[in-house]
Amino acid sequence: MNDFLELVVGATASGCIYALVALAYLLITRPTGIINFAVGEWAMMAAFAGVVMLNQWDWPYPVGMAVMVAMMFVVGWMTERLTVRPLVESGAPPLAPILALLGMLVVFREAISIGFGPDPQAVPAAFGFGRLEWGLLAGSYQSFFIIACTLSVFAMAWYFFERTLHGKSFEAVAIDRRAAAWMGIHLGRVTAVSFAMGAVVAGLAGVLAAPNVSAHYLMGMPLAIQGFTALVIGGVGRVEGALLGGLILAFAEQMTVRYAPVPPGLAMGVPLVLLILFLLVRPTGLLPAREGRT
Amino acid sequence: MTHRRFFMSLHTIQWTRRAWHTVLLSALVGALPALAQNTIKIGMITDRVGPAKPYAEPVAAGATFAVKEINARGGILGRQVELMVEDDQGRPDVSATAARKLVDAGAVFILSVSLTPATQQAQTVTLESKTPHMTPSNGGDTLTTQVNNPNFWQTGPLGSTQIATLLSYAANRNYKRVALITENSDLGQLTNRFFKAGLEKAGIQIVAEEMVPRGSTSADAQMQKIRAANPEALFMTGVVTPENTLILRSYRQLGLKMPILGNYNLSVPVYTSVAKGLMDGVTFVDAFDPNKPETKRFIEAYKKDVGTEPYNLNGYGYDGVMLVADAIRRAGAVDKDKVREAMQATKGFVGVMGSSGAQYGFADGKRTGFDTNGMVVRVYEGDKQGKVVHVGVK
Amino acid sequence: MKRTWPWLLALVLLSGVAFAMGSYQNDVYRKLLLWITLALGYNFLFGIAGQVAFSHFSFYGLGAYSVVIGITYLGWPLPLAILVSAAFCMAVALLVAIPATRLEGFYLALATLAFAQLFIVLLNEGGQVTGGTGGLANYRLPDMAGFRITGPAYTVVIVVLMLSTLAILLRLDRSHFGRACRAARDNPEAAAAMGVDVRRTRILAYTLTSTLAGLAGMVYAFVDNTVNPTIFGLENVFLLLFMIIIGGIGRAAGAVVGAVLLYLLPFVLSPLIGHHHALVFGLVMVLVVLFQPKGLMGVWDALLARRSPVARNHVDKGAKVQAHG
User: Fold this and answer.
1) Whole-number Å distance between alpha carbons of B391 and A163
2) Is residue C48 a contact partner of residue C180, using CB atoms and an 8 Å limit?
3) Which tens digit of pLDDT belongs to each residue from C17-73?
4) Between C103, C110, C279, which is nearest A107 by CB?
5) CA of C70, closest CA in chain B: separation in Å?
6) How many Å from the N-terminal Cα to the C-terminal Cα in chain A?
7) B218 and B169 in one domain?
8) Three-state SS annotation for A2-47
9) Which residue of A12, A182, B231, B233 has the smallest Cβ count within 10 Å?
10) Are residues C53 and C109 in contact, defined by beta-carbon separation less than 8 angstroms?
């Protein structure tokens, strides 16, 4: 039982990382319909920013995080401006931005690989890795930190979409672009902000995951796939869906490894099978979208 | 109409002239090798962009340094050595193509320092073309057994040698029940297989065997399973840094206390920076004794020439080239058959890698040359790699 | 096929070249031909049928592994192994296509991505049968009627494969099926209203192109006489995607141009820009999507248009179609 409770914390932390990546996809997909696979590489870039600012330059953690957030905001904004906006404005087919972003995925990854070399690099944790016991649950400081950060981010995202006018404008764009434009909503700005926020959230995922795993230039792809899986499971329609999907995925993965009598190599296939099942049986995910378009 | 035809013909003239220039230039460039026929060509296939890059590039650097040293001392058989480097991008099919290119370009020996499956695939070419081929760094045991290639040798530290050395070190602990943990790369699985075989041969029971897939964010589930099985020691057979770091992190988090014995991947210095605070007390097997006189000399020479302090990966590449040079010298000619025979006859060669007294040799038709007694066991003290605490398999 | 002589001429020329080249160039040439074959199939699936699938390369691997397992582990004669492997690829493709084609756009992409990863996991865990992580080696093409096909003669086999694939796909492209695929891609509702069975068309397109990829895989198995999971990894599908986008999506010529360029360029560029060709490809991909979505073939068309007013007419028509699409 102790094992289970301990695993709960770890699995929740992993689930939060997946949830953040899923949220990054969601923030971009909702208003624009564009699937941005490059979110994994954004996470990786932020992790390396963490290497430079927190490790090499030894800045205090909050400062480093703040700068990282600002940096990723700019990266997201620029990506949208340079590679997505021209396509949307010229009326290109919806596949085109997705392809352009796949190209950018490779560009980001190679740029980091050239800049930092092939070896993994260390990123410090916010409060170190001491063990924290909280009632019956136990885990590392970093795990609790990840959970706390994620919950805050999701709370902010929920508040943004549910309670603020800006957030409602996102929803409006998601439901009907043209009508939203006629209502005076600036489409370009909504898209740019969605990309920028998506980049920030993805970057956060990277910086939170890297202390455990190290920052290395191949870390983007697995995160992108796991995040996408979480999104599919939870449902694209609601912010809470991303969180739910991430947690379900992480728990399925880790509980299978821990308790299922399956050889370790095949246990890897469980999240894949889960994904395929979801896609076949319930592609809209577990949480239905709110009224309006699915 | 005539206007256009005129422009087109002008264009044609320009194009023809350009084509001629290209032809002449290519002929000249093609003739250059003939002018430089005095070099001895050694080919090297490395990975500059793919997943093996962190491990292949340092080995390649060591090899390049060795060639430089040889040439500075007058070369081999009075001729300078030309190292032809090909990048297989970590892709096995490109590795085979690269091998063909090297063979066609006249390489008398090919060194493979990339991924294990890439080295495997390149063997198809060296088997067919009867070109001497060696890996100085790959440690997968099946490279010499899966395909019967008399032109291929392996001087990297074998998984079987690693486990034998670790077991000999731990002999007095009398382990009866141990656990294994790895990841899902090709070499990780291979190393795990041979560690398992070594343990089973020694009559030790494996109570847990876990695998952390690449891309994982946590190894807690696997480590909990291991904790539940209560082994006396944990053998780490994975070769990928992020996953090994996760394992070490989990180990501390879960409060595990059993000794960790790691394969030679844990000897690579990247862990001291990435897994800071996690390495203390970790035992690992290595092939690099910095206090050996030959090694000391190598470290100084490398530092002076290249500027950075070398470590074990560089040493593998260095020894590889030196072994090849030695074989060519003994063969007396740049003839593939003679070089093959000379290589097979290598005996008692002392290199930079290995413990004091370790020798490379391919006795009795074996094609694995690293001294089975030549690995050392070291323990991390804090974040630094400590002294050698045990040598060989006795 | 209206005229067979261009095909025969192509066969003779492309095969003849093989006999004039050394073993290294032959190797590059063979692998290039295989990539062209794959690109042609993927172009049909992605460009013409509009299905964003990441499983193409996995069928390549499936074909390769099946035929090798057939002749080694199961000890079958080569013709039987080939037939059974082809049937197996077809069966698996159907198994994937039937549920997957219900999904649209990125869901299909994700499902096929998951399938591709699952394929690698199964290969790694296949133990004796698949050779696990080390793969299978130690086999070669069995002698046929006393003849051993090696060297440039085997290159001819690959040329035949490539040309057959091209012929089949061109034929399909220009047929009713090709039009149905495009209709299903552009506007499924309208297509259904016009009597096209959208679901069936999609399933057929997927199964057909995947089986063709499997056949290419069978031929590949005897090029290096080694198969292992690393060869068939996920990165290759991205390269395939880049090839057809950069070459010119939806056109066979585009697939050929893209495959030739992206396969050969690393070999040529290595001495110049070192090893960062992936960066170059990514950048070119982005530039192509932004500025010339019709890829290099679009650039070629534009150049031709500048020369001759007739061609300019074609380009304008093409541009109009594109704006609607």
Assistant:
1) 68
2) no
3) 888 888 888 888 999 999 999 999 999 999 898 888 899 999 999 999 999 999 988
4) C279
5) 19
6) 40
7) yes
8) HHHHHHHHHHHHHHHHHHHHHHHHHHHHHHHCCCCCCHHHHHHHHH
9) A182
10) yes
Number of domains in chain A: 1
d(CA B291, CA B355) in angstroms, rounded, equals 9
Q: Are residues B140 and B281 in the same domain?
A: no
Q: Does A41 touch chain B (CB under 8 A)?
A: no
Q: How many residues does chain C have?
A: 325
Cβ neighbours of C97 in A, within 8 Å: none
pTM for this entry: 0.86
Domain coverage including residue B67: 40-157+291-361
Asked if residue A259 is part of any domain, the answer here is yes
Task: Answer whether B110's CB lies under 8 Å from B152's CB.
Answer: no
Distance CA B7, CA B3 (A): 6
Q: A touches which chains (3+ CB pairs under 8 A)?
A: B, C
CB A118 within 8 A of CB A103: no
Size of interface B-C (CB pairs under 8 A): 86
Is B370 exposed, middle or buried, given 0-12, 13-18 or 19+ CB atoms closer than 10 A? buried
* Intervals of chain B under pLDDT 70: 1-37
Inform me whether the C-beta atom of residue C226 falls under 8 Å from chain B C-beta atoms: yes
Determine contact, residues B129/C24, Cβ cutoff 8 Å: no
CA gap C59, C57 in Å, rounded: 5
Interface predicted TM-score (ipTM) over 0.90: no
Q: Which of C58, A222, C61, C132 is nearest to B186 (CA)?
A: C132
In a domain, B235, yes or no: yes
Quickly state the pLDDT bin for C316 (edges 50, 70, 90). Answer: very low
- Written as one letter, the residue type at C250 is G
Name the percent of chain B in helix, strand, coil, to the closest 5. Answer: 50, 20, 35
